[in-house]
Amino acid sequence: MCLIDVRPKNQPKSQMNNGSINVRFVRGRIHCWFLSLVLVLMSIGCTELLGQESVRLAIISKEDVTRPAADVLAAELSRGTLVILEREQIQKVLVEQSRSLGGQQDYVKAGEILGADGIIILQMLQRGTNSVLNARLIAIKPGVVLDVLQTELPTKGVKEWSSLIATRFSPFWPKLKVLPKDALPISVLHLRSSLKMRDSERVEREMTSLLVARLVYERSFFALEREKLSALAWEKDLSAGQSNFWTGAYVLDGEIAENSTNSISLRLRLESPGGAISNVTIDGTKTGIAAVVDQAAKELVRLLGKPENIQSWQPVEEGKRFFAEAMSASRAGLVDEALAAAESAHALGYKEKALLYHLARLNAESALTTYFQPNEGFKVKKVRESDVNIDHAVRSLDLLHEYLELKHNSDQDWRNGIRWEGLAGSLVLTSSRIVRWAWEEGFYASHRDEVELLRERLREAVASILPRGTNLTDFDAAMAAYAPYWYDNPVEVFQCYRKALRSDYGGYIYSIAWLRHHLTEARDKPATFGSHDSALRTPWLIDWRKDGIDLDETWKNFVNGMIASTNLNEHLDGRLLDLFTAHDPATNSGAFKRAEESLWSHRQLIITNRFTFGIAEQIIYSLPLINDFSVPFFEYFLHESTLFNDGYFNTMFAWRFDGGQNPKSTENAKRIFAAMQIYKRHLWPDAP
């Protein structure tokens, strides 16, 4: 308990005057005085008296559907040093203001009445076919929007969403206390490349957005991209205040010069409101954009502020934030925003495998935006030039290469982790379609360098993927159909096929089977190639350099060369392709007979090697269902093969020979039916 007696020393209580004040502690003197002081400070909320400035923030929901998100955000922000105003208090001011303004709202005025330093406004907007949640952060003192973030409306991961908003807006909290007279508004124009670099547009976007993001950390700097300033014109509730604030802004523009393959210079030009010009030049590398941007910001602070006020910056942590924003934008269907945020994260040095995966995917989606119905197949005529972006296609394959070069990647990541194997096939297929479109629509002649670069990246990607293999059919279909578009002449195409057919595909024997299936289907039905991509390939081979090559003769020579090979697997592949080379019945009959002879003469080797048997299986699939060859071969396999209990082959013959056959039709059918009963008892001994 603490009692405070305020009167002159030795003066009775009855003789109080206005003289000196004596504070006498009855109990717990020093401790009690300190406790009282703390209680007083807490009761009046005087954080400023303790040397800290509290930021008062209001959160406004413009629709009822956003209120649950606003409540969670308020709880998230309350855990820090911010003072979050009560919803009832905010609503009371807004209702009164709406009455006096005839239903209109002036959020800056409302913030002033509330004594708020900033306001976050949550509002649902329509972006195309998507509904997005728009979060605006407004600084009340200058009356301007500091930042805008659009995400999906959080219905499940509300806590993750609130954390994302808090992290995004946190660098702006100190700015909410800056008075207009102390603010330095900077209108940032889009930085341009002085030379036309291949990836100049991407570098320009990254450099501009990252420079603005870096300047956010300087307390008195209010930097905004001019393009975004124009986009804020629709916000009529703030337009007058914003216009007045930005009228007297500094203007920052500049150019990016390419000095060599990886060396660049950033040359900035800063114009003051009075017209004075200052120039800043920073040298760096394309792979070190974050360092260039950080140094540029420091130089601007030296020009406009005090060097001792320069803030530290953690680019990788900033990159992590950008990646979180990219994922949120992607879930909301905002592909452009997601791609821009992911590219910024990558430029800042955040190189996690998950980022590379999603960045490659987003680039591929932006490379070819034509939509095809499931099983519709790829139709060249349906693609418009505006749907194609070769730079994005090249970028997607560059990111695939970057992932494959990571020292800490593994087969686990490739096959079972974040499914790089499936993405790799999709990237190759998308880029291949673009090359085909460019070739068949005459785009290649006017954009030769771009298309040639994409073809080079495709060849590099294929060389990297083959040793790893894929467990999906996109890559196999793309290789079978599009290899003629990757290489300059058919000989190189056949070398690619031979290498693929002899690869173990990382152990994926089923995928190598799909490659053979696509090759045979492409040759047999070139106009309707691919069960997953109808009308994928026409013609079969391409004379890319227009050397007058006889394509049919070249194909026959390739097949005959494989048949003559001393390698049994290659020999059998040749026999398989030979079945689909001839189109007239008489020739086909001879091809069937030759294939049967090869299978029977090499049967002992075939039934002991799973890869060799994989080829034999596909030949058998192409032969007449039940004849004088298939029946004894099946019986031989049943009694002699070491592959009988192989996990891959144990139902192969069941699919082939037990498909509703009538056991009484022929003697061969009876033999097959009897053998199948033995076969099934081996496979399923517990079956009734």
What does this structure look like?
By secondary structure, the chain is of the alpha/beta class. It is built from 28 helices and 13 strands. The chain is elongated, with a radius of gyration of 36 Å.
How many individual helices? 28
Assembly state? single chain
User: How would you characterize the largest beta sheet?
Assistant: 6 strands, mixed
Rg over alpha carbons: 36 Å
Question: What is the β-strand count?
Answer: 13
Average pLDDT level: 77
Shape: elongated
Question: What key attributes describe this structure?
Answer:
688 residues, alpha/beta, six-stranded mixed sheet, five-stranded mixed sheet, 28 helices
List the helices and strands and how they pair.
Blueprint: E1 4-7, E2 22-25, H1 29-44, E3 56-61, H2 67-78, E4 83-84, H3 87-100, H4 107-114, E5 118-127, E6 130-139, E7 144-151, H5 158-169, E8 184-188, E9 192-193, H6 200-215, E10 221-225, H7 226-231, H8 239-247, E11 250-258, E12 263-271, E13 277-285, H9 289-304, H10 315-331, H11 335-347, H12 353-367, H13 390-405, H14 411-415, H15 420-440, H16 443-446, H17 448-465, H18 473-486, H19 490-502, H20 509-524, H21 551-563, H22 568-579, H23 585-601, H24 603-606, H25 610-622, H26 630-640, H27 652-657, H28 667-683
Parallel strand pairs: 3-4, 3-5, 8-10, 8-11, 9-11
Antiparallel strand pairs: 1-2, 5-6, 6-7, 11-12, 12-13
